[in-house]
Design brief:
With 378 residues, this protein is α/β, with parallel strands linked by helices. The protein is 51% helix and 14% strand.
């Protein structure tokens, strides 16, 4: 039994380290692909779905009105997803640009996929050939839109952009910023490696004709989350269009971290609720292997204490190799996209990382979660 468990732990460790190597190699490929912003003549539609964002939506509006992009070549469509606060009134009273509109979407059917249906509603009314989506709690630099658009060429169907948590003074905020940066960096590396898996709806773009070519969100409207990742994976699997990551700091969208552990819990539960439903079964299997590696890391001290001290060696090998390569991946990605002082919190974050990775997917298995004062089914 000892030999069998040790061999399994060895295979899982080797797989995870190979996974991290692919991410690192993908980041290197992205870094070598420089993006030179050019003046685009294509008409762009920016879609911003929102629900109960009265406290932040004006900051988003200001950042979108101040883009260094010809006002005649882009429109902004805000889509109200049945807000119960005064978000719509605040927004409508403060719009001063003729290229910005507010659409009111009424979801009359179902208990799922509210956001996907709202975005699809806006796409059908959009004039742009390229759709850029962001969230209402995000802000952007003045060059965000031109830099994101510059990543599109005739062969590109989908572009994922960087997102950053604005760091507060609390340690909890700083740890969230590092963890979130790690997710964005991993997604970027996998795109660079030719295996797009994760991205973030707060900053992405796609061609409208490609959206309809793959059937939009059809096939996953039974799931509330995943308007970003499922679409990217469908385009990669079912078309010849390229998937790109916009590795430019000017292309970042900025948002605030969760204020407390309760909201953090609900957000991670929402993110984890979709992983087992990816159409790419090799990707699902990869996630299962990574979960098993972390699970073995978590239980190996207990195996060492109550079964055989030999497992202390496997714990040491696993945790040290994990930390070394994860640090290399984060350093590469953070140097490309973020401020390097984020790495100061790496070792503190590592204390919580293993139990977090084990328990987060388990939270998502139940599926239901609360988001924007609405109880949502998976």
């Amino acid at each position: 039994m000892l030999t069998g468990i040790s061999f399994l732990f060895f295979l899982l460790t080797a797989y995870y380290l190979f996974f991290l190597y692919r991410v690192l190699n993908g980041l290197r490929k992205i870094e070598s692909q420089s993006v030179t912003p050019e003046e685009s003549k294509e008409f762009i539609t920016v879609i911003v779905p929102f629900r109960n964002e009265a406290g932040v939506i004006l900051e988003n509006l200001k950042s979108l009105e101040n883009q260094k992009y010809d006002e005649n070549l882009y429109e902004v469509l805000y889509v109200d997803d049945n807000s119960t606060d005064n978000s719509v009134n605040i927004l409508e009273k403060n719009i001063h640009s003729g290229n910005i509109k507010v659409l009111k979407f009424k979801n009359a059917d179902g208990e799922r996929a509210y956001k996907k249906k709202a975005i699809e509603y806006a796409i059908k009314q959009s004039r742009g050939e390229i759709i850029i989506t962001t969230d209402a709690d995000c802000t952007h630099g003045k060059e965000w839109l031109p830099v994101m658009v510059s990543c599109f060429d005739d062969e590109t169907g989908f572009v994922s952009g960087p997102v950053e948590f604005l760091r507060g003074e609390k340690l909890f905020d700083k740890l969230q910023s590092l963890e979130f940066a790690g997710l964005i960096i991993t997604g970027a590396g996998l795109i660079g490696a030719g295996n797009p898996a994760i991205c973030n709806a707060a900053n992405l773009g796609f061609r409208k004709n490609v959206f309809f070519e793959v059937g939009g969100y059809s096939g996953n409207l039974n799931l509330s989350s995943g308007d970003d990742e499922f679409l990217m994976q469908k385009i990669h699997a079912n078309t010849r269009y390229k998937i790109k990551f916009c590795a430019d700091k000017k292309a970042k969208a900025f948002t605030k971290p969760n204020e407390d552990f309760k909201s953090f819990y609900q957000q991670r539960k929402r993110w984890a609720s979709k992983g087992l439903f990816y159409k790419n079964k090799r990707l699902v299997l990869s996630l299962v292997f990574i979960f098993m590696f972390y699970f073995f890391l978590l239980v190996s001290p207990f195996l060492a204490l109550f079964y055989n001290p030999f497992f202390w060696m496997w714990f040491a090998v696993g945790i040290l190799s994990k930390m070394l390569i994860e640090y290399a991946v984060l350093k590469k990605g953070i140097t490309m996209l973020y401020d390097e002082d984020l790495l100061r919190y790496f070792f503190v974050a590592e204390i919580f990382h293993v139990p977090y990775i084990v328990f987060a997917p388990l939270l998502g298995l139940r599926g239901n979660y609360i988001w924007k004062e609405r109880e949502i089914k998976r």
